[in-house]
# Entry
Amino acid sequence: MTPLPAVRRPHRYRLAPLLTLALTGSLALTGCDALSDPPGPPAAGGTALRAAEELTVKGRAPRTGYDRDAFGSAWADTDRNGCGTRDDVLADQLTGVARDADGCKVLSGVLDPDPYTGTRITFVRGRSKVDIDHLVALSDAWQKGAQQWSAGKRRAFANDELNLVAADSSANRRKGDGDTATWLPPNKAYRCTYVAGQVAVKAKYGLWVTAAEKAAMTEVLSGCPDRKLPVGGSPTEAPAR
# Structure
């Protein structure tokens, strides 16, 4: 079967207008204390470091009752585009993508570089060393607020591309359900991006962090204090199946 040409979906992430950044800079220059703003979701265009500093700190709740099925069927088509989330992410994050005749299943492609290891990985369906990782693991989310959510919100979280990254399967399995305090990608050049992504997901969904996790986040992001907070992805409530 001749692979169909790749049809690249545009990235779903967006960055806020430069005007917001300019305003933030002008406040700093005039001595205004941006940290005195009322608490709430981080503004679009804010930095990941500031957003991390504003995350709620609590202890980790028990894992009692956690089950993958609590987040809905794996890789559901929550955006109703006819393709499962896993194939959406592969199509968006791999290069040289070939699909099946129906145009959904990704048959092959290249992850170059793999964000977690910095290496080049060839993807072949059924023989892949590429996983789709949840930046914020489902189990971690369960212990930090998700067990109180509606079923629709958990489905949205599990399939939100803001929270998903194609990555080396071995590195992903070493990560397990770890948070920033317990695991960081071996590829140090990706760590700011990785942590900023975790902060964005936790801020978007209102998840809390442990004290050790927040300290680890701010330590990493202090090395890239101007890193913008990623925004976008899907709505926080998925439609019923």
